Structure formats: C-alpha cells, structure tokens
C-alpha cells in the first residue's frame, strides 16, 4: 500500500524515531559506563563481570539481528520496534530485581534481544521499508538526534544513581521505554504501508558482485571494532601519548560533538555524493588521526578526538546508507542484519583485545586500530557503485 504524506509528517517520523533511538542506546549501550561499578559491588564482584554480561548481550543482538531485519522487510518496522521497547523494559526490570548473578546475566541477555530488534539496524530497516532508496535523508536524521544518546544518557543515569541507586535507575529506564519510547515508535506507518517521496531516485540498478557483501561486512566489523575500542580506552590511550588526565578527558568529550557535526555535514554537503565517497573519507579519518597522535604526541589529543569522532559519525550513517545504495531496498532489513552480525561479535571483543594491546605496547597499540582502519578504507576503495 502506498501513501503520499507531506514533508511535515516525514519530519515527525524522523524526530519520533530519533528520540526513541536515543532512549534505546542510552538505556543499553551506555549504561555500563555509569552503573557497572555499583552493579558489580552489589554482588561483591569486579566490574569486569558486568562488562562480560554486556558483551554477551551484544552477541545475542548479533544473532537476532537478521531475523528482526527479515521481519521488518515483511511487515514493516512499527511492530518490531514497539516490541523492542517491551523487551528492553523487561530486561531492565529483571536487572533491577536480580537477586543473584545468573538472573542478572539473564536480564542482560534480554536487553541484548532488545538491542538486536530495536537499535540502529532495525530503525534503518524500518525507514528503508517506508521510503525505499529515498531513506538516506531520514537515516541521517535519526543518527543526528541519537548522536546525543551518551550526552543525555550518562547524566540521566548518573542522576538516577545518585538519587535512588542503580536498581532504581534501571527501573527508571524501563518506565521511560514504556511511557515515552513505545508511543514514539507507534508513530511509524502500520504494516507494509510505504510513503511515496516525490522526485526520489527509486530505480533499481544492476546488482553488484557477491564479493561486495563480504567486503561490506568486513568494513562494518572493522569500524565497529575501532569505535568500541576507542570508546572504552580513549583516555588511557591519550595519556599514553603524553596527555594529562584532564586533557585526555576534555579531548574525549569532543568525540560526541564531532560525530554530530560530521552527520550535519553528511546531511548537507555530502548527501550530493554517493555514500561510498563519504564512507571512504570517514574510514580514512582514524588512520590519519593515529599518525598525528604518534608523530605529535599529547598535543595532538584534540585533533585525534575530532578526526576519530567525525569519521565514526559518518560511518554510523554509512552502515545504513551503503547497503541501501549498493543493493537496493528489496530484502534490505535481512541483509543489514547479516552484514552487521560479525560487527556485533567483534564489538564485544574490542575492549578486551585493545585493552590488552594498550597494556602491552602503550601508545604503539594505536597501530592495531590504524591498520584495521586502513584495511577498511582499502575495502571501500575496491567497492564500486
């Protein structure tokens, strides 16, 4: 069924979905940074156990992602995304009431299920199901909004922790899913309704060679690994380069604004070019930043954070727009789930692997992620429209 809706309705869909995505990321991906220590202390364990549970959740999300994408291809994203809010609320509630470690891990496993059916991949698939090849703009729009997930999530989690405790903070996020995110996801069109976008380039081109799937899966896995490694260890890396702790923290705070600024650039200037062009530029940003950090040391901390953040911001969009541009909207959701499954699994190992490298090699550990970034750039150069 085709619908022709005014631009204002498109803006409302993007805004609602962007806010719902902000809540999804803030209540899952970003809560361990604030709540891991009190969570672990309540069970008399090291925070490593909490991060282990979080890694397990990411593996769960990788396994259910292809199913969620295929489901969205068939019936649209509204029901799947609304279901994710219920799943998130159940998992967070289970964390809040967990009397023992096994129940705590079960809560994280359910949150992993919510991540697999409710975060970016599912949202991108929902927009592709609605807008077809014209979904590039809406995809960029929701990442612009959800780019503030850590900016909103960390302070809100910290406030609930200081006011009530970590268990009550989890309950607070569960209520936010039920009272705010679920109604926002309900704004999406029902079932298989599609929106006609005037003057959109909807014609399907010839399919690319099958090796393009493998190259793209590698690019996503490489960039997710680097992004997660930096998110976990950036302050330590910058201090290894000679920055003071204060400078390392200040530089790290620039990553969020750099991501958002780069997404604004993608929404404006770069949208005139094929997504491959912006993805190649973004993938090369981390290796260039690494060279700057090694050559100039601590004084390059801010430049490193800005370059890495900008590249990561555009690559997040590319995870949705590249498969759409290269393969078209048919079967997009399932394809996106399979393409991102290796990335989710590698993402779960990134903090441990890069942490070990940083402990063993110091600043030279950056060559690990720089090399991975260079390989991702090379893979994107091999890809053709």
UniProtKB/TrEMBL annotation:
Keywords: Cell membrane, Membrane, Transmembrane, Transmembrane helix
Keyword presence, Cell membrane: yes
Coiled-coil regions listed: none
InterPro entries xrefs: MFS, MFS_dom, MFS_Efflux_Transporters, MFS_trans_sf
Residue ranges of every copy of the Major facilitator superfamily (MFS) profile domain listed in the record: 13-385
Subcellular location: Cell membrane
Chief location of this protein within or outside the cell: membrane
Name used for this protein in its record: MFS transporter
GO molecular function terms noted in the UniProt entry: transmembrane transporter activity
Membrane-protein topology: Multi-pass membrane protein
Record organism: Neogemmobacter tilapiae
A Pfam cross-reference name: MFS_1
């Amino acid at each position: 069924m085709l619908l022709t809706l005014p631009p204002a309705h498109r803006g409302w869909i993007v805004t609602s979905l962007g806010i719902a995505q902000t809540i999804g990321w803030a209540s899952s991906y970003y809560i361990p940074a604030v709540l891991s220590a009190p969570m672990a202390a309540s069970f008399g364990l090291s925070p490593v156990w909490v991060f282990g549970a979080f890694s397990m959740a990411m593996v769960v999300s990788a396994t259910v992602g292809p199913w969620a994408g295929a489901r969205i291809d068939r019936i649209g994203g509204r029901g799947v995304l609304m279901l994710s809010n219920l799943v998130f609320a159940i998992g967070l509630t289970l964390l809040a009431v967990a009397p023992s470690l096994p129940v705590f891990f079960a809560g994280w496993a359910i949150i992993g299920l919510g991540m697999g059916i409710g975060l970016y991949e599912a949202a991108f698939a929902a927009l592709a199901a609605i807008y077809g090849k014209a979904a590039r703009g809406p995809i960029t729009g929701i990442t612009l909004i959800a780019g503030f997930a850590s900016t909103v999530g960390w302070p809100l989690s910290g406030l609930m922790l200081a006011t009530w405790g970590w268990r009550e903070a989890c309950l607070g996020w569960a209520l936010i899913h039920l009272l705010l995110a679920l109604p926002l996801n309900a704004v999406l069109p029902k079932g298989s309704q599609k929106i006609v976008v005037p003057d959109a380039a909807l014609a399907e081109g010839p399919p690319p060679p099958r090796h393009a799937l493998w190259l793209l899966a590698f690019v996503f896995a490489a960039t997710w690994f680097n992004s997660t490694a930096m998110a976990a260890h950036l302050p330590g890396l910058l201090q290894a380069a000679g920055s003071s702790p204060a400078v390392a923290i200040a530089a790290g705070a620039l990553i969020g604004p750099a991501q958002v600024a780069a997404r604004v650039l993608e929404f404006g200037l770069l949208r005139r070019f094929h997504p491959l062009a912006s993805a190649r530029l973004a993938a090369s940003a981390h290796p260039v930043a690494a060279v700057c950090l090694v050559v100039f040391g601590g004084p390059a901390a801010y430049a490193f954070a800005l370059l890495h953040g900008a590249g990561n911001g555009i690559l997040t969009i590319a995870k949705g727009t590249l498969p759409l541009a290269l393969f078209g909207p048919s079967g997009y959701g399932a394809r996106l789930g399979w393409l991102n499954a290796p990335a989710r699994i590698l993402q779960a190992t990134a903090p441990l692997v890069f942490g070990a490298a940083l402990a063993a090699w110091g600043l030279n550990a950056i060559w690990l992620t720089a090399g991975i970034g260079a390989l991702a750039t090379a893979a994107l150069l091999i890809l053709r429209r």
